[in-house]
Amino acid sequence: MMKIPVSKINWTVPRLAITIGDPGGIGPEIVMKALADPRVTENCDLTIVGSRQILQETYQKLSLEKLVYWENLKILDVEFDGKLEDISLGKGNAVSGEASFCYMETAIAQTLTGEFHGIVTAPISKTCWQTAGHKYPGQTELLAEKAGVKKFGMLFVAHSPHSNFVLRSLLVTTHIPLCQVPVTLTPELMSWKLELLVESLQKDFGISRPKIAVAGLNPHSGENGQLGTEEKDWLISWLDKESDRRPNIRLDGPVPPDTMWVKPSQAWLGLQALTYDAYLALYHDQGLIPIKLMAFDLAVNTTIGLPFVRTSPDHGTAFDIAGQGIADATSMKAAIQLGKELVLQRI
To answer: Exposed, middle or buried: residue 220 (CB in 10 Å: 0-12, 13-18, 19+)?
Structure first.
């Protein structure tokens, strides 16, 4: 794992790089809209990483001067191989993919040298990255590779506006086809994902004795082998071993996937007090469908296991509405706020 030179970081306030994502999407718009909120910008140092010309064109096209002063925006202008005139709002292509990749590379490099405590990333298009020749499943994998870490995870966090409940869910497997999930899941993978989750709950959220619910893989958690054998073959015994090995945490499961989200959804609405500190979902949609139903505009993706903080809105580039001025910056605001909180917790 690459270490950040402590001497280079200003420890007085969180210093965050905010990448604009794919410049053909809503990234430039939601970044500037988020920075128009004084609650987002207070007690921190925020730098937009992207193309100054793209940002200025978006600013003028959408009349964002009604929200934020251009002079208040701190911008790190990034050069890349491609022509800015080949990028247009509402369309993603190889050039926009190359641009967003370069924004990320720049933000990561400067964070690793100590210029920033962490990175908040606007959405990119995985297809545009592939078209530009960058064969990464997503930003998370690029972050991990550049930081030199092999064990990392996608933790989704959302603060309920209806109660004090904080929803946290870690995905054990992420961007793989559904048919690969059963063969990818192993006791070893489960153990190090759980290790990452426990470490994050303790270090980033101050929860010393966390309570964690672990989902089953199959309907009804296998129904004693009638609807799938993974639970019976190894998942239940894995849970027993981890519970014995970790007496300071509470592990419950395997919880049937169709019922695991009932109590958190009630807690989200303030109807249920008893719940868990985190939920361990075994594959992408098992964790993300309920999160997006409860907290689509509020959920934040944070990469755990990195030597720095990384957060991101839990939505995509929305090419279909880019350039229309109607993009909602709520999730971007939440991502910046969580980034600030995690940095302050660590320092």
So the answer is: middle
